[in-house]
Amino acid sequence: MIGADRVCLNQVTVLQQWTLPEFLANVRRHGIRSISIWRDKLKAAGLDDTVRRLADSDYAVTSLCAGGLVTAADPAAGRAAIDEAKRALDETAAIGAGCLMFVAGGLDPVDKDMGRTRARVLDRLADLVPHAKARGVKIALEPLHPMVAGTRSVLSTLKLANDWCDALGAEDTVGIAVDTYAVWWDPELDTEIARAGRRIIAFHVSDFLADTTDLRLDRGMMGDGLIDIPAMHRSVEAAGYTGPVEVEIFSQRNWWQRDPDDVIRVVLERCRTAV
Predict the structure, then answer these.
(1) pLDDT per position as a tens digit, 208-260
(2) HEC profile for 232-255?
(3) What is the helix (H) or strand (E) element at residue 60, kind and residue range?
(4) Is-cis flag, bond preceding 66, omega within 30?
(5) pLDDT in tens, 87-145
(6) 78 — alpha (psi -120 to 50), left (phi > 0) or beta?
(7) Are 38 and 15 in contact (CB under 8 A)?
């Protein structure tokens, strides 16, 4: 049973309903104090204005979502991507967030070599580590489902995230985000969660619907789908994770169409009964 004090609401759960100022003004009345901010919404609202609003609030900002997309084979595009990722790290520090969710980027459409693409990401992560350390924020490697390896992330498994952490050797700066929707299918899930241990710095929950209509934008509310979320929750806690449970639901056909206050009420109810 997870109470409101352990719930983190990722802004994407009500992405279509509220601007960032509206999100900051309304979430608190539900007793939720931990939030994750969507970077596109931050840009729309303005960094300086958001920093002022957060200073007047008692929110704990767990992360900024997201930065990365550093897979380009073209050297100039690669440098531009690194510069953009550094700006995202700067924004993460400015809003007082604990980490930047790192989305690696999809397979380069010209290169089409998965091994080389993943190697480039690891090299560019190494370039980003000193910048993150200087800003006092962490980089959260978030493996995404293989279905988006061509468009969003070539980081597809927890094993690969653990391997990258081993290679980087920056335990104080680079951690791992475990997202139920992205990794529930993995036959090595329990082994790699245990291996990750204290590297786990975020735990995201949503459900995989058996009748999904969109593999990215039709996530389910916890308890409505196929994932044994309580079992995964027990696994990350056994590995040493004690942070908030972050609800992150992309839902074009359902939850983004509903009254946002009703969505949050259901989120809190399901965190009590299905997480």
Answers:
(1) 999 999 989 999 999 999 999 999 999 999 999 999 999 999 999 999 999 99
(2) HHHHHHHCCCCCCEEECCCECCCH
(3) strand 60-68
(4) yes
(5) 999 999 999 999 999 999 999 988 899 999 999 999 999 999 999 999 999 999 999 99
(6) alpha
(7) yes
Give me the CATH topology for the region 4-273.
TIM Barrel (3.20.20)
Distance CA 39, CA 132 (A): 17
Would you say 247 and 205 are in contact if contact means Cβ atoms under 8 Å apart? yes
CA distance 5 to 141: 25
Distance (Å, rounded) from C-alpha 270 to C-alpha 275?
A: 7
C-alpha span between 44 and 23 (Å, rounded): 13
Name the amino acid, one letter, at 75: P
* Residue 275 and residue 41 in contact, taking contact as beta carbons nearer than 8 Å: no
Tokens of 54: 């957060």
